[in-house]
Specification:
Oligomer: heterodimer
CATH architecture of the largest domain in chain A: 3-Layer(aba) Sandwich
Largest sheet of chain A: 5 strands, parallel
Radius of gyration of chain B: 51 Å
Structural class of chain A: alpha/beta
Structural class of chain B: alpha+beta
Radius of gyration of chain A: 19 Å
Helix content of chain A: 25-40%
Strand order of the largest sheet of chain B: 2-1-5-4-3
Number of helices of chain A: 8
Order of helices and strands of chain A: EHEHEHEHEHEEEEHEHHEE
Chain lengths: ~220, ~475
């Protein structure tokens, strides 16, 4: 999987590059819009991460140019503005995403992976299994070591989301967006409460815990 | 130098107005005088002509009854009595030779010979006998007598001219002060008309970065300039709100961020000083991330509040079903409430619609519900209800919690004010400020009724969306 990063801030670029490489991606870096456009046109990428404020050619124009050339690489737009302005809205296709600075790297990573998964159109699995925990997505049944676990709809949605992203950290914002379709921070412990409930059902009666809290970042489901 | 100052003057609206006003004033005065002069002159000449013709008819009748003798006698008698209006009388033969001539002594300067040289007119026509070096003329009417003789009666235009000359003199005498008056009047009017504009200019001039409270004095006349002043004041007000809002939020941000920034710095410093104990360092890093997350949330919320307060918040307005909105928010907090043993009850009929930004609405209801659940003890109850009240839609968030002390009630909307001084509940102290700002950005109001120990009741009223109901 090959990713293009167009970002002029070298510190941000270096931590994103490092993180993406550690996650097993091949990453190219362009420091300005023109170079970014050249690279995006000449090389095939699975995803591009493009900052809006760029020297020489701004990010939005870059994306417009790409789309005009019928290059439909999925794009993650990075912006320092909190509200998505209309131009970005107009640009966004179904395969694009938007992330505001400052962002947690884990969130960027999760979004990159989601984009690649969506654009590669892998067949929807009917069940997900992580270690001894397995979820039947059609029957909406959860079993751990053969024991059936009863979950309420939101709990199920959260577990499914964590399972699909097994081994990856998902942030509270992402959980809010995914489980409740809310895109603001209600400044509350709604997510903590939901995770706590899910833990009680999935982890409490077992010795090896699967749902872990990464302080300040989010949660991860993995085989410990 | 003079030309330049004249050019400068020409650019002034006041000067141009004055010129236009006085120009139109003088022209219309001229026109009126010309019209009056023309009417007077034509009526005077008509009067003269009628008199001459009457006399001509009279004399011609006399001639026909008594011949030349009677005519001569008549004229001589009249001459003796020195009638007020003298006439020139001439009787001419077939070849236009003068047979009898009577000319009043004041008109002897007229060259009567000219009349003899003219081919006499058979029809009643007017002959003008001009006088040298004078505007006066002798107007003569002729009539052919039955014996082919020619009878002519005339009159000098002297009297008429005298009246008209007098008229012209008056006109000239009047015109000079009239022009001056027109100019002065124009200047006065321009000065008066431009007064609100001068106020506007001086007000605008006095507006500066530190003086936004200047307002234009409104003439209170209800005209366009009044409207301009009102509009301008409105604009100033808006700018002032914006600038004050920006300044306040900048101050607030600077002030409010200092505390968490200090904490952040402290955490990092302690971690650096501890002898590279990995566990302590990890802990400190996690603390730093949490702290920076808090700073970010605070910053975002402060930005939201000031955007909403200054009216620049971008609202994606659409028709929102209130019932669905309330259900959604209650659903978000269902587990939180369940865990705490609080009953969240919703009640809203399905036909209530608002024109609002659904995300912002969710945010404020979530904030209120969050507060209610936080401050309501186990076994309590939170009600969210919505109903019509006149043209408004009222949304209530009512709890059986600890309530708010009356002394604290007015301060709960303040930024960073927290009733809970012990800070046992975590929060930024920005929630209610944001709620109020967003409600006001939606042109609504929020009130709170509370009794310590019994609970609080937050009442939001918003304009309803009638076309959907």
């Amino acid at each position: 999987m090959r990713i293009l990063l167009v970002e002029d801030d070298l510190k941000i670029a270096s931590f994103v590059l490092k993180g993406l490489k550690e996650a097993g991606f091949a990453v190219d870096h362009a420091q300005d819009g023109e170079q970014g456009l050249y690279m995006a046109v000449t090389e095939p990428y699975d995803t591009a991460i493009i900052d809006i404020m760029l020297p020489k050619l701004d990010g939005l124009t870059l994306i417009e140019e790409l789309r005009r050339k019928r290059i439909n690489t999925p794009v993650i737009i990075l912006s320092a503005k909190r509200s998505i302005d209309d131009r970005v809205k107009g640009l966004q296709t179904g395969s694009d995403d938007y992330l505001t600075k400052p962002f947690a790297f884990s969130e960027l990573l999760a979004r990159v992976q989601a984009l690649i998964r969506r654009s590669s159109r892998t067949a929807e699995p009917t069940s997900v299994t992580v270690g001894e925990l397995s979820v039947d997505l059609l029957k909406r049944e959860v079993t751990r070591s053969g024991t059936k676990i009863e979950l309420q709809p939101h709990e199920f949605a959260l577990l499914e989301y964590l399972m699909r992203n097994a081994g990856r950290v998902v942030s509270k914002t992402m959980i809010l967006e995914h489980v409740w379709d809310y895109n603001f921070d209600p400044q509350t412990n709604v997510v903590d409460v939901l995770v706590c409930r899910l833990r009680n059902k999935v982890d409490r009666d077992f010795d090896n815990k699967m749902i872990h809290t990464i302080r300040g970042v989010g949660y991860v489901l993995k085989i410990s | 130098m003079f030309l330049r100052s004249l050019k400068q003057l020409r650019k002034k609206v006041g000067f141009r107005l004055t010129i236009w006003y006085s120009g139109i004033f003088i022209l219309s005065a001229l026109f009126l005088f010309a019209l009056a002069y023309f009417l007077l002159s034509s009526s005077l000449s008509k009067q003269d002509h009628e008199a001459i013709e009457l006399r001509l008819q009279e004399l011609s009748a006399l001639y026909q009854t008594g011949g030349r003798e009677l005519l001569e006698r008549e004229v001589t008698v009249e001459k003796k009595f020195e009638k007020k209006i003298p006439f020139f009388t001439r009787l001419a033969g077939r070849d236009n030779e003068t047979l009898f001539l009577h000319i009043p002594y004041q008109w002897v300067e007229f060259d009567i010979k000219l009349l003899e040289k003219m081919t006499p007119d058979t029809t009643m026509r007017w002959t003008r006998l001009p006088l040298k070096n004078n505007r006066n003329a002798l107007e003569v009417a002729s009539i052919r007598l039955p014996n082919d003789y020619l009878l002519q009666v005339g009159k000098s235009t002297e009297d008429r001219e005298k009246i008209l000359r007098h008229f012209r003199e008056i006109f000239t005498a009047v015109m000079v002060p009239l022009i001056l008056f027109g100019f002065a009047g124009g200047a006065f009017l321009a000065f008066r008309a431009l007064r609100p504009i001068r106020h506007l200019i001086s007000a605008v001039r006095s507006v500066g970065p530190n003086r936004m409270d200047t307002r234009v004095r409104s003439p209170q006349t209800g005209d366009e300039l009044d409207e301009l002043a009102t509009l301008f004041n409105g604009m100033l007000e808006k700018i002032e709100t914006l600038i004050n809002g920006m300044r306040d939020s900048l101050d607030n941000v600077a002030h409010d961020l200092r505390t968490p920034m200090t904490r952040l710095r402290g955490i990092a410093e302690i971690a650096l000083r501890s002898d590279q104990n990995l566990e302590i360092c990890r802990e400190a890093l996690a603390d730093s991330i949490e702290e920076s997350e808090r700073i970010l949330t605070m910053l975002n919320t402060l930005m939201d509040i000031s955007e909403a307060e200054t009216g620049v918040m971008k609202l994606d307005l659409e028709s929102v079903n209130v019932s669905a909105l309330i259900e959604g928010v209650a659903e978000l907090y269902r587990y939180v409430a369940e865990d705490k043993g609080i009953l969240v009850h919703t009640m809203a009929s399905n036909d209530l619609y608002l024109t609002a930004d659904p995300n912002r609405m969710r945010q404020i209801l979530a904030n209120l519900l969050d507060n209610s659940i936080k401050y309501t003890p186990t076994g309590g109850r939170v009600d969210i209800e919505a109903h019509h009240r006149g043209q408004k839609i009222v949304i209530l968030v009512k709890d059986t919690g600890t309530g708010i002390h009356p002394e604290e009630l007015p301060r709960i909307w303040d930024r960073l004010y927290r009733c809970d001084q012990s800070r046992s509940q975590k929060g930024l102290g920005l929630g209610l400020s944001l709620v109020k700002a967003i409600v006001q950005a939606h042109k609504g109001q929020i009130e709170v009724f509370s009794e310590p120990g019994k609970g609080s009741n937050f009442v939001i009223s918003l304009p309803s969306n009638n076309d959907q109901s």
